[in-house]
What does this fold into?
Amino acid sequence: MKLSLNGIKEQEAWEKAGITLPGYDVEAVSEKAKKEPCWVHFGIGNIFRVFIGGIADGLLEEGVLDRGITCIETFDYDVVDKIYNPYDNLGLSVILHGDGTREYKVIGALAEAVKAQSSDPAHWKRLKEIFTSKSLQMVSFTITEKGYALQKADGTWFSFVESDIKNGPDKATGAMAVLVAMLYERYKAGRYPIALVSMDNCSQNGAKLRESVLTMTEEWKKAGFVDEGFVNYVSDEKIVAFPWTMIDKITPRPSEQIAADLEALGVEDMQPVITGKKTYIAPFVNAEKPQYLVIEDHFPNGRPALEKGFGVYLADRDTVNLSERMKVTVCLNPVHSATGPLGVVLGYDLFAHMLNTNEDMMKMARMVAYDEGLPVVADPKILSPQAFVDELFNDRFPNEYLGDTNLRLAVDVSQMVGIRFGETVKAYVERFGDASTLTAIPLGIAGWLRYMLAIDDEGKVYELAPDPMNEEIQDQLSDIVIGKPETLKDQLKPILSNERLFFTDLYKAGVGEKIEDMFREMIAGTGAVQATIHKYVQK
It folds into this structure.
């Protein structure tokens, strides 16, 4: 069986394999999207295909959506060439339950895949056609938090952003420059309204996206590439809206075992590929069942019936913000960022296995969420924080079938520590005067810095997960020697006092010295990391 438009016509074989096929006409909904695009998405990797694509697939199955999603790749064009084109834009969703059972479903909601590549005339022309369509209602994004970043930690432009500012819309390369270039086309075509919906896992994601769009617009206005009218157009949220969202679904990298199992069922060519830009991706996506997407209901040009999607909630901005803060700054992501990097240092591959077998790590994880997070979380009402955390620890975190790795949780961790820890630290300062009573969160920050040394608790070298700040932080820590705690002097101070990183000075918050002490204990020698964790979680 081939995952292709012709292949899925062999319905009996797919049914025999236990794989559900689309109950709608895939070719028809794709054609409709090509002629009258309604929903465009930037960043078309794993989370998009299984979650956002899965939502659209469900709406198509229910008959409340009549066209697919237009898929735009802004970073890794191999994804289009290796995962979309060879499989006729079909995807295969593999939902992994904690009891070992699986749900297989072919996703047919991905209408076309376009490279946001100004150097490719055909794709660039097609992108302009899409953005100048009156029918276009929303553009959603899963490009990771760094996809919106225009400046380095020191406030200077990234080199590609500098080039984008200098070269103008016609030669845009970065995601934000491409987006603003396309918005300019939409403005010239008729000032058509649109909603730009970040679905990335970061606080106030809509505000971040808006800030980047407005910054790029202003820089191009200064350089003479766009006019004042365009600045007014993107600045008016009644015309160009930036709804906030909260997104949650654990989506590990594709499993080679699942690829083998699918091939054993008769599905051809399921093996994952690693692209030139190190994206690990496969024709299928494996993920957990639970999912949450809370969206601010602000769509100037209308929207699909998103509220009918599985796990989707439409709400006002305040509710979205509270839901996102609950998840990103308290309940889920801080647990991942506190324990994932430490898991790498301790030599654990799988996150779930670590929590299920290492009592201290499970205790630390529970401390981050229950003891330190929940007391300061604001209740969004639409979701219960207590119930959310209970589901995490009872059902989601222990699911070893999910295959989520600690190394994945360490990807871009330096971009996340501020959001995931800084907000709770600030909440403690506001409520109690300082954050000195915190233990597990400082331990997680110390663990992140210990992870950055790239030597595990047994003294073996490992490779860090991708992170744009790896080199910078490693340079700052370069003269620290494991086994010689006296080599720790003032190396952590520029990091822990960096308000751009943590949104607060951790020393002023009363935890900087505590983190230094914990880190010093972690570098005492072999086994020091596990011993340090044990010491603090047993207090």
